[in-house]
From TrEMBL:
Family: Belongs to the triosephosphate isomerase family.
Name assigned to this protein: Triosephosphate isomerase
Stretches assigned to coiled coil: none
One of the record's GO cellular component terms: cytosol
Organism per entry: Saccharomonospora viridis (strain ATCC 15386 / DSM 43017 / JCM 3036 / CCUG 5913 / NBRC 12207 / NCIMB 9602 / P101)
Record's keyword annotation contains Isomerase: yes
Gene Ontology molecular functions: triose-phosphate isomerase activity
Length: 250
């Protein structure tokens, strides 16, 4: 269960959030749940300094370049992200694809770079509404996933998370997906990647009301949450929901 803050939170806000989160987690039962936070680059080192007090919380970076160093103005490398505290590298979010020219080829290069340095690669896949309406959702997301993960060994795939985030379901204008709409894509991802990857996550207008139903979908191993987890109370509530789901399943 994780959250990306996107381009939100100053250092002071990031510090306050993390202090409160670590305090509230205390000895909270998180059986079967791995919390993660993906702050903006500016806050990553600050969040690490506080989150180290609760090793259950791991951190990520929202993007990273495929080269280890070089003349890439404005970019951050995987080694730099790891040095600042990241253990997860988020790759291929639809906003990166739409606004910054991310392609299947660049996601493949970035996944390889993350794995080369021992990070977990969090690959985001998802289709626009017109693809869904044409009945091509499954083919579209499999093309994204297979292209980015081409040539990886089974050992490497165990360090990959796939987050299915349909573009029509994310952001302020997103429409929450129904379980029926998600069963087909997750069945396809499970059939193709099964237990070969570390896990399959769902993200897209996740909130406390729909989280229990989303977690019950076959193939969903966890949730990747946006604004519903940007306040500490919201993130804690979602962690509790995930823990309760795991205890019911066991």
């Amino acid at each position: 269960m994780g959250t990306s803050w996107k381009m939100n939170k100053t250092l002071a806000q990031a510090r306050d959030y993390t202090v409160r989160l670590v305090k509230e987690l205390g000895d909270r039962d998180l059986t079967g749940v791995q919390p993660f936070i993906i702050p903006p680059f500016t806050a990553l080192a600050t969040v690490r300094e506080i989150a180290v007090d609760d090793p259950r919380v791991i951190l990520g970076a929202q993007n990273a370049h495929w080269d280890d160093a070089g003349a890439w103005t404005g970019e951050i490398s995987v080694p730099q992200a790891l040095d600042a505290g990241a253990r997860i590298i988020e790759i291929g979010h639809s906003e990166r694809r739409q606004h910054f020219g991310e392609t299947i080829e660049t996601t493949r290069l970035k996944v390889a770079a993350a794995l080369r340095h021992g990070a977990l690669a969090l690959l985001c896949v998802g289709e626009p509404a017109e693809v869904r309406d044409a009945g091509r959702s499954t083919a579209y997301i499999l093309e994204q996933a297979e292209g980015a993960l081409a040539g990886l060994s089974d050992e490497q795939l165990r360090s990959v998370l796939i987050a299915y985030e349909p573009i029509w379901a994310i952001g302020e204008a997103g429409r929450p997906a129904t379980p029926e709409e998600l069963r087909g894509p997750f069945a396809a991802l499970r059939e193709r990647f099964g237990d070969r990857v570390r896990g399959l996550l769902y993200g897209g207008s996740v909130n406390q009301d729909n989280a229990p139903d989303l977690l019950r979908i076959d193939g969903v191993d966890g949730l990747f949450v946006g604004r519903a987890a940007w306040e500490v109370e919201g993130f804690l509530a979602l962690l509790d929901i995930a823990t309760a789901h795991n205890s019911t399943d066991s």
